[in-house]
Design goal:
- The chain is 5% helix and 46% strand.
- The protein is mostly beta strands.
- Strands 1, 3, 4, 6, 11, 12, 13 and 15 form an eight-stranded antiparallel β-sheet that branches. It has a seven-stranded antiparallel β-sheet with strand order 2-5-14-7-8-9-10.
């Protein structure tokens, strides 16, 4: 078990440098809100409105009593929705980043990026036996651009399942799969961390919020996460499904919330005063010491990979600090160090 936890510390020496967040803020203006974050002035939404204008926007916002916040609702109808009036054997309602998006939404060779979000499938959710994608990381540019690199898809089977799919080239394989039933009717928090490169790393954890149960987890090292001729990799979220077995499907409303993209960059471009920060020891069992802090840092917070805050403490300018983490369960955590106009984050492992 300790060896597994040590493996999850792989990114502990890297610093968070760019962060993008997309949160629902209430009914109305949903497309404008999504666009303002993912691709200001352009169109990051692939909705089936072109053939179903009478319904209105296929993405809206509703209040969720479990999260106690507004969330995004993605609608898809077995008829007449299609794939952007281009393909009619499938249908999609997705948001994405693309070449018109800010640079910190485009993953490039050598970067490490953490994608996190929450989603909820209805208790009666029905999947296609072909594919029902809810998330993809897709390479753009080069001859392999048509094949997603990583895909989360649900599939009608016995029993229905959710699959993590991967393609190094033009052939997909299943890295991990599990029963879909524990996901249905529940909010699930997803954290996905990828180091882009020809010898990259990949880690995903999907946690049911109601009881903190890990429903799916997987990690890879020395995996090909960069393709010849690629310009960047972009994330996509929503629902994209085959209509080849339309009799197995129904109209769906999939909920999403709290999209976040955190980008780590190579240390050579970091400001030296932030690079000098030391978190010792790592892994840690009882007391974490944070040393060589810039004078601008005024607060430290520790989050689990599910986004839950487990510790918060104010910092006296320029002072080293010690944090008692003996009461925090074993696992991988993100330490946020907040400054006046900037911030950094480091991963730590707690092993008692």
């Amino acid at each position: 078990m300790k060896n597994i936890l040590l493996l999850l510390c792989l990114f502990a020496s890297q610093s968070l440098f760019a962060q993008v967040q997309l949160d629902a803020d209430g009914p109305g203006g949903t497309y404008a809100l999504i666009t303002s974050v993912l691709a200001p002035g352009h169109n990051p939404i692939e909705a089936p409105d072109c053939n179903h204008g009478a319904f209105g926007d296929h993405i809206d916002e509703v209040f969720d009593s479990v999260l106690n916040a507004f969330v995004f609702r993605f609608h898809i109808h077995t008829s007449p929705d299609n794939d952007r009036c281009i393909n009619f054997d499938r249908q999609r309602n997705e948001i994405k980043s693309y070449d018109q998006s800010p640079d910190n939404l485009l993953g490039v060779d050598g970067e490490t990026v953490r994608y996190s979000w929450k989603f909820k499938l209805d208790a009666g959710f029905q999947s296609s036996s072909s594919f029902t994608h809810i998330h993809q990381l897709k390479s753009v540019g080069g001859s392999l651009a048509s094949m997603p690199m990583y895909t989360l898809t649900t599939r009608k089977s016995s029993p229905d399942r959710i699959e993590l799919r991967y393609a190094e080239t033009d052939n997909q394989i299943t890295l991990k799969q599990t029963d879909l039933a524990p996901f249905l009717g529940e909010w699930v928090s997803v954290t996905e961390t990828i180091q882009y490169g020809t010898s990259g790393t990949y880690e995903i954890e999907m946690v049911r919020l109601s009881d903190s149960t890990v429903l799916l987890a997987h990690s890879e090292t020395h995996i090909v996460n960069w393709r010849p001729g690629a310009d960047f990799v972009r994330p996509k979220w929503g629902i994209y499904r085959s209509l080849n077995q339309v009799q197995d499907l129904r109209d769906e409303a999939v909920l999403f919330a709290n999209f976040e993209v955190d980008e780590w960059v190579a240390s050579s471009v970091q400001d030296a005063k932030w690079l000098d920060i030391q978190l010792l020891p790592n892994p840690v069992s009882e007391v974490l010491k944070i040393q060589r802090l810039p004078h601008s840092i005024h607060q430290v917070m520790i989050f689990g990979l599910d986004g839950k805050l487990v510790l918060k403490q104010s910092v006296k300018a320029g002072s080293d600090i010690s944090l008692n983490v003996s009461g925090i369960p074993n696992g991988t955590y993100l330490v946020h160090l907040l400054g006046d106009q900037s911030h950094t984050s480091r991963k730590i492992c707690i092993i008692h």
